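Inverse folding, one chain.
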């Protein structure tokens, strides 16, 4: 790949190999997003589907030489957010400018903006990532975001 450095190719091959269950340089396309996220990328589910990922196991297989151009393209994609981008967005809800926001506003944001979560997904994210609310219903959003980014 002309636009991937040797180190990028090496990292991509390693991440790909983790999901190559039988050592044949082939992964199930349902794991495309997992491989990209293992490479510190943050594509949306819609992007993954557009790039050839599937929702069900066994629908499609993907070879390493098919994956490398996808990795290269996804690496150049500027639409994906990073921690700092998401932090800036959550700061909009920080009325007291003290690093906290209402837990209810966070739930509302997850359910209504961008690539929306359903109620069950939102509950799972909150359970796994959100610190307990204080007496006034506020949570620190930076720790939430750090935990969330690790899950992605």
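Residues assigned per position:
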């Amino acid at each position: 790949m002309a636009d991937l450095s040797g180190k990028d190719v090496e990292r991509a091959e390693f991440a790909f190999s983790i999901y190559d269950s039988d050592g044949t340089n082939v992964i199930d396309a349902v794991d495309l997003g997992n491989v990209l996220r293992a490479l510190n990328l943050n594509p949306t589910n819609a992007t993954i589907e557009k790039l050839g990922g599937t929702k069900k196991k066994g629908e499609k297989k993907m070879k390493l030489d098919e994956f490398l151009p996808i990795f290269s393209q996804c690496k150049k994609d500027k639409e994906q957010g990073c921690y700092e981008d998401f932090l800036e967005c959550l700061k909009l809800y920080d009325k007291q400018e003290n690093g906290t926001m209402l837990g209810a506003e966070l739930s509302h944001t997850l359910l209504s903006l961008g690539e929306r979560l359903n109620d069950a997904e939102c509950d799972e994210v909150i359970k796994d990532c959100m610190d307990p609310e204080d007496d006034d219903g506020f949570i620190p959003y930076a720790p939430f975001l750090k935990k969330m980014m690790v899950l992605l």
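The longest helix spans residues 6-19. Residues 32 and 53 are 5 Å apart (CA to CA).
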